[in-house]
TrEMBL record:
<feature type="transmembrane region" description="Helical">
    <location>
        <begin position="328"/>
        <end position="355"/>
    </location>
</feature>
<feature type="transmembrane region" description="Helical">
    <location>
        <begin position="131"/>
        <end position="153"/>
    </location>
</feature>
<feature type="transmembrane region" description="Helical">
    <location>
        <begin position="70"/>
        <end position="88"/>
    </location>
</feature>
<feature type="transmembrane region" description="Helical">
    <location>
        <begin position="234"/>
        <end position="254"/>
    </location>
</feature>
<keyword id="KW-0472">Membrane</keyword>
<feature type="transmembrane region" description="Helical">
    <location>
        <begin position="9"/>
        <end position="29"/>
    </location>
</feature>
<keyword id="KW-1133">Transmembrane helix</keyword>
<protein>
    <submittedName>
        <fullName>Transporter, major facilitator family protein</fullName>
    </submittedName>
</protein>
<dbReference type="Pfam" id="PF07690">
    <property type="entry name" value="MFS_1"/>
</dbReference>
<feature type="transmembrane region" description="Helical">
    <location>
        <begin position="202"/>
        <end position="222"/>
    </location>
</feature>
<dbReference type="GO" id="GO:0005886">
    <property type="term" value="C:plasma membrane"/>
</dbReference>
<feature type="domain" description="Major facilitator superfamily (MFS) profile">
    <location>
        <begin position="7"/>
        <end position="385"/>
    </location>
</feature>
<dbReference type="InterPro" id="IPR050189">
    <property type="entry name" value="MFS_Efflux_Transporters"/>
</dbReference>
<feature type="transmembrane region" description="Helical">
    <location>
        <begin position="41"/>
        <end position="63"/>
    </location>
</feature>
<dbReference type="GO" id="GO:0022857">
    <property type="term" value="F:transmembrane transporter activity"/>
</dbReference>
<keyword id="KW-0813">Transport</keyword>
<feature type="transmembrane region" description="Helical">
    <location>
        <begin position="94"/>
        <end position="119"/>
    </location>
</feature>
Amino acid sequence: MKQFKVQSFVLVLIGFTLGFSEFLIVGILDDLSQQFDVPVATVGYLVTIFAMVYAISTPIITLMIGKTNLFWSLLVLMAIFTVGNAMSVMAPNFALLAVSRVVTALVSGVAISIALSFVSHIAPMAKRGWLLSWVFSGFSIASVLGVPLGTWISTNFGWRMAFLTIIGISIVTMGLIFGSLPRDFKQRGSSIGGQLALLKDSRIRIGMFLPMFNLAAIYVFYTFLRPIITTQLHFSTTMLTVLLFIFGIANIIGNQASGRLTNGPGLHAMPGVYVGQFILMMLLPFTFNLQWVGAAVLMLLIISMPLLNSPIQIHFLQVAEQGYPQSIVLASSLNSIFSNFGIALGSATGGVIVSHLGMNAVGPGGAAYTLITLLMVCWLNRVNKRTATSLGSKG
């Protein structure tokens, strides 16, 4: 039991470390803009670049791993991740900073996919939803502690020190991985074609697009969270750090609620979530002159952001375990792959909206993607019901 707790902590720490690196840009957007003398909207595209590289590289590297030992694969990926952040520390200009983010993004998606695969390897069925929600909460904790901490470090000591902090944490994480996780973990050997057979299943094909449009909706405004807080809601720099901390807590609450959903209604609860999210998105621009009301709307939207995580992750893993056991790591990666396509889509959309229509349009812009997500989850629930009925009649 003690070993399981330690292993669980290490998996959550992996999520925190990767999340800290990925989300840090949101907190230091203005500092990078001033340092390199580029517009804030241009710096925002670092989020888009990271997410696109993450999403494209993850399935390719995941398929290449095949039946390679996943313990050693994870350590190698974390080492490359550390090198990528070291490149960020030393970047002399914006172009090389972008290159360093590409290096980091190349391995981040595969690393978290393997970490999520370890969940199914070490956790009993009754604990999977709980542990999955905590691994995803590692990203939320990065928002609570990492992003405000990174923002504070950047403001007081320079943004390079923020990346140096990530390097220190990633080295500690690698040491804990080496000392605690099982070293004999491999997925069932299969060709690339055999692994890709998972994608023939309609439950997978429809499900893939849920995390994409879910995060596309959020990142239309979330990419510009710092300027929204300071220029639209007129909070001070001191309150910015406080609010980022509060929003991080809200994200943890959402992730823990997501874990509870897996033991309850699961994906059946999501249509109601997206109806509420759509309403909040449409209300957002009307709250920009109502400081605390606007902050409350942002908090509710951030709570809604991770609610899909555990139900859709369990959905992918169950489909793979039942019919495609050779594709466990690929199944584990789908949520993060398409989440990052969504981040790229949402942040790029947000950049276009801010450049041409202004900050007031980011809420309604995100609402359009929320509506698509609502339609997709209703479609998936219908397919799942039809499949369960079909299997029941055969049984």
